[in-house]
Amino acid sequence: MAEYDYIIVGAGSAGGTLAARLTEIPTNKVLLLEAGAASHPYSRMPLSFGLLIDNPAANWLYQSEPEPNTANRVIPVPRGKVLGGSSSINGLVWVRGQPLDFDTWAQMGCRGWSWRDVAPLFTRMENFVDGDGSNGRGTDGPLKVSTVPDQNPLYDALFAASKAAGFKTNPDYNSEDQEGVVKTQTSIYKGRRMSVAHCYIEPAMKRPNLHVVTNAHTLRVLLDGKRCIGVEYEKDGKTVQARAKETILSAGGVASPQILELSGIGQPELLKKHGIEVKHELKAVGENFRDHINARIIWRLKVANVSYNHMARGIGAVTQMMKYLATGGGFMSLPSAPLLGFLKTRPELETPDVQMHLVPYSIKDPKTRKLQDFPSMTIACYQLRPESLGSIHIRSADPKAHPSIRFNFLADRIDQDAMTAGFRMMRRIVDAKPMDAYRDEEFSPGPSVQSDEEILTWIRNNSQTAYHPIGTCRMGPEGQNTVVDDKLRVHGIQGLRIADASIFPTMPSGNTNAPSIMVGEKMADILKGAA
Ligand SMILES: Cc1cc2nc3c(=O)[nH]c(=O)nc-3n(C[C@H](O)[C@H](O)[C@H](O)COP(=O)(O)OP(=O)(O)OC[C@H]3O[C@@H](n4cnc5c(N)ncnc54)[C@H](O)[C@@H]3O)c2cc1C
C-alpha cells in the first residue's frame, strides 16, 4: 500500500491550495486525489461559467430535495468535478468578505481565525494587478486578480442610478470597508480564468513530492479505532488503498460530510438506517448547512447595443468570439457579474447585509444559462449572512449516490426580511432617473408583484442558489454543533482533518472562493507548524 505524509481528498479551491503549499517543503510526500478529470478544454475561458454549469464532464450536477419553503422545486446544485474543483467552473467574482465575518468566527471560539489572523493569508494568496499594495492587497501571490476592464454606457448609468438612489461607490470593496456599488474584482487575468488548478496545482505538479491522481473517487476514510490511517478510492474500476500520517478531506461543502458518513462518522441513527457501522458519533456532520438564495429581477432595455442579449447572439456571438481571441475581452471574458453592490437594507446596520450582482444581459433559465432573446439586464440579490440552516446527508451507503441536499432557505424571519428589502432596493436603483434612457418594462417578475408577501412568494417560487454551500462540517470547540476544532482536526478522531468551505462556522459576506482558498492556506500553516 502506498504511504504518504499527507493525503488530500479533493483538488478544489482549498485542497489544491493546501497541496501546493505543503509540497513547498521537499520532505513532505503528498497524495492529492481528485474525482474529476485533470482539465476541461473550456475551463480557462471565463465564459466556461455558463458552458460548464450543466456539463457532467466537469460538474457533479447535484440537486436539492423539493422543499415547501421554495415551492417544492428541485434546485440544481452545480459543483466543480475537475482539477481546481469549483474554482475551475465558478463565476470568477473575487470577494474576501468583511472583517466582521472572521471576527465572528473567533468570537465563536475559533482561535486563530479572526480578521487580524486571516488577513495576511488573503494578502499572500493574491496578486491584485490593479492595486498598489495598499489596503493589505497582495501584489505577489500566485493568483492574479483584476478589475473587470469591460466598458459599457449601461454601467455608467447604473453607477449614476445607484448614487441617485442613495448608495455610495467604493474604490476597493476587498479592503476593510466593503460597502458600495463597484466594478467587480475577478479571478481573471488577460481574459483567462485564474483557477486554483492553474495558479497553485499545476506549478506544484513539477515537484517530485506531489502525486496527483485524477479520476480517483474517494469512497471512505480508513479508520483503525479512533485513528484515521488513510483512504480507499476507486480508480479505473479498481479499489485502491493509500496510507498517510494525516488525511485531509477537502471535498467541499457537499462531499466532505458525505465521505465522513460513508466512513461511519456522523449521526448514529442515520448511519444505521443506511446499514453503515457507526465508528464515531458526531451529531453535527451534515448539519449547519447554509447557502445564498439568489433572487433575480430582469428588465427589458430600450437600447439594444448595451445588452449582451443583443451583442452576443447570432452573428454577435461570432464577433464576440473574434474579440475574445484578438483581445481577451468582450462577452466571453466576463465574470458572472461585472458590477456588484454591497449594501445595507437598514441604515442602522454596521456593515452591508445584501449583495447585488448587476449583469448587462439576462438568461432564459439559470439551469442552462441560455441568453434571453431580447435586449435586457439582470440584477440579482442575496442576503450576505443567512440564518436559515439546512442539512446535507447521505441517502444511501452507495458512495456514488448523490447526497440529499436540504437548503431550508428562508426559514428564518431575518432572511425573509433582508431578501424582501434587497428586492425593493434593486428596483430602487433601476427606477432612478439616470436609468430613464435605458429602462424598459420589468420583465420578471413584473409590476404585479408589489407587497412584501407577493415579493417573498415570488422569491420562494423562482430563486436559485448562488452556489455557496458551507458549514456542513462546522468548525468550533467540541460540542453538539461542530465537527472540527480550530486546527481543523475532526473531533475525537486522530489523523483526520477537514479543510474546505464545509468548515465555515457562518457564511462569509460574499462569494466563497477566496475564503475557501484562505482555508487551504491556513491548513498549510497549521500543518507546517506556522499557525
Ligand atoms: C457554478 C458556480 C459558480 C460560483 N461562482 C463563484 C464566484 O463567482 N465567486 C466565488 O467566490 N465563488 C463562487 N462559487 C463558489 C466557490 O467556487 C466555492 O465556494 C469554492 O470553490 C469551494 O471550495 P472548496 O475547496 O470547498 O470545494 P471545491 O472547490 O468544490 O472542491 C472540492 C473538490 O473535491 C472533489 N471531490 C468531491 N468528492 C470527491 C470524492 N469522493 N473523491 C475525490 N474527490 C472528490 C471535487 O471534484 C472538487 O474538485 C461558485 C461555485 C459554483 C459551483
From TrEMBL:
Coiled-coil ranges per UniProt: none
Keywords assigned: FAD, Flavoprotein
Entry superkingdom: Bacteria
Family to which the UniProt record says this protein belongs: Belongs to the GMC oxidoreductase family.
Cofactors, names only: FAD
Domain Glucose-methanol-choline oxidoreductase N-terminal: 80-103
PANTHER family in the record: CHOLINE DEHYDROGENASE, MITOCHONDRIAL (PTHR11552:SF147), GLUCOSE-METHANOL-CHOLINE GMC OXIDOREDUCTASE (PTHR11552)
Species the sequence originates in: Reyranella humidisoli
InterPro entries membership: GMC_OxRdtase, GMC_OxRdtase_N, GMC_OxRtase_C
Pfam family, one: GMC_oxred_N
Name of the protein in question: GMC family oxidoreductase N-terminal domain-containing protein
